[in-house]
Design brief:
29% of the residues lie in helices and 23% in strands. It has helices at 6-9, 13-34, 36-44, 66-71, 110-126, 146-157, 172-177, 186-198, 220-230, 344-351, 391-403, 407-414; strands at residues 92-96, 104-108, 134-137, 160-162, 181-184, 210-213, 234-239, 245-248, 255-256, 262-267, 281-287, 302-308, 310-312, 324-325, 329-330, 334-337, 340-343, 360-370, 375-383, 418-425, 442-444. The strands form five sheets. It has a nine-stranded mixed β-sheet, sandwiched between helices. The radius of gyration is 23 Å and the shape is globular. The structure holds zinc ion (ZN). Zinc ion (ZN) binds next to loops.
């Protein structure tokens, strides 16, 4: 199978744009008719839903954040104002916690499930997965949507799923069932490879043919290293319960956005307008419904708190025409030093320099201390063998990569307003190991 839904995935650009605008009109009308939040909003702002004709007009509608969703659900309000259907039409209920407080509630219909699953099915097929493949899913089967809808996607393409839900599964799973792929995060897949080696199974000689990385943004260097360790290609995915699922095809030239199912706009930092094509900005998503479709929870203009750049709207060498974006980064993982921003991924890039990897595991964490006059960043890296860890080379490689293309930070580093200190640690010695949950690798303690 080359495509899961060829006529849509390879649709000519002008036809695709027409289809998107058609779906925007239907979806906005559906929201105005069925969502208590949007019904009230159109009424209060005296805007006629029929005036929203194309994607450009979406700028007239409010930008919805995670905070808005929380403010429009119990206990803040008496009902779920983004819920568009009656209780008896709800198939599943989900929650996403994010980093702060009250979880956001999401209600899905069976239609929603099929659309989510279709996005994954297209992505799997674009990564050359198909009938006969056996995939271990390490993403969690909890209140979020990802792992569950991946499992449904597998059914649609005839693939076998091994629903482990985490990457700490016993190595015998690989020996006994000979899976051909694993879905996990970069670091979990690295740790799994080390565990396999310890138990005498060389990852490069295992049954695995491809890996899918998701759940967090990463540096290209860490992907390259993971590919070396396993000896197979690693494909990127970007998804969330709030609405999207973008997958990198086997050409690895950016993540394809399923444009007929989700509309992606890139906004400036003030969230007032779109950025110019090719500029970095905030990802704002709108779920699209096909005419006649229904959604349990509908978000138009949802601010993801992630940033990206549109790489191209031209046809990809894989034949798909849907637009491609760069690996999104989390805004919450961006810090400012000397008037210049950098992201956790920039630190990760410095760590995963190819010549470093004979000495370190790749596990790292960084802390920022100081005030507006002087900032110190302490980067801790885990050595494979603390007695045989070439610290000078690692530091040199890190600084060269980290300060490259960052003139303000480079200047601050030279004049001593930005100090970068290094700390080399034995395996399992990093601070985040002591804290439950997703590791926070760049912590601002200013
Ligand atoms: Zn492609």
């Amino acid at each position: 199978m080359t495509y899961f839904r060829e006529e849509i995935e390879t649709m000519a650009r002008d036809e695709l744009d027409t289809l998107v605008d058609e779906r925007i009109r239907y979806t906005v009308n559906f929201a105005a008719d069925h969502s208590p939040f949007y019904r009230k909003w159109f009424h209060d702002n005296q805007i006629n839903p029929a005036d929203i004709q194309s994607h450009e007009d979406l700028r007239e509608l409010p930008i919805i954040s995670g905070k808005t969703v929380r403010e429009k659900q119990p206990p803040e309000t008496s009902k779920y104002e983004f819920k568009c259907i009656d209780w008896d039409q709800v198939y599943t209920i989900h929650e996403t916690s994010g980093t702060s407080g009250t979880p956001k509630s999401f209600f899905l219909t069976w239609d929603d499930w099929n659309r989510y699953a279709e996005k994954y099915a297209r992505s799997f097929v674009s990564q050359n997965f198909g009938k006969g493949d056996r995939v271990v899913v390490c993403a969690s089967y909890g209140m979020n949507v990802g792992a569950n809808t991946m499992t449904l996607a597998a059914q649609k393409i005839g693939m076998t799923i091994i629903p482990e839900g985490k990457c700490t599964f016993p190595v015998r799973i690989i020996r006994n069932y000979q899976p051909t792929g694993i879905v996990g995060s970069i670091f979990k897949l690295l740790r799994l490879a080390r565990r396999m080696e310890k138990e005498g199974l060389d990852p490069q000689k295992s049954s695995i043919k491809r890996l899918i990385a998701g759940g967090e943004s990463f540096a290209e260097e860490s992907r390259t290293y993971l590919e070396e360790v396993w000896g197979v290609p690693v494909y990127n995915t970007y998804g969330s319960t709030e609405g999207t699922m973008c997958g990198e095809c086997h050409k690895k030239m950016g993540l394809h956005v399923p444009e007929d199912l989700v509309h992606l706009d890139v906004y400036n930092p003030q969230l007032q307008n779109f950025v110019d094509e090719g500029e970095c900005g905030r990802i704002v998503l709108t779920t699209l419904l096909p005419p006649g479709g229904k959604a349990g929870t509908l978000l138009l203009n949802y601010d993801t708190d992630d940033t990206t750049v549109v790489i191209s709207r031209e046809k990809c060498p894989c034949g798909r025409t849907h637009l491609r974006i760069m690996n999104p980064q989390r805004e919450a993982e961006t810090v400012w030093v000397s008037g210049s921003p950098f992201n956790r991924v920039d630190v990760e890039k410095g760590v995963f320099q190819p010549d470093n990897m004979q000495y370190i595991t790749g596990e790292y964490e960084a802390f920022l201390y100081g005030d507006e006059n002087e900032v110190t960043m302490r980067v801790s890296m885990e050595c494979l063998d603390i007695n045989n860890c070439n610290k000078e080379i690692i530091q040199e490689n890190f600084l060269k990569s980290f300060l490259e293309y960052k003139p303000y930070l480079s200047e601050a580093h030279q004049d001593g307003t930005l100090n970068i200190l290094f700390n080399f640690i034995e395996p399992n010695g990093l601070e985040f190991y002591k804290i439950k949950g997703r590791p926070k690798r760049l912590v601002d303690r200013r």
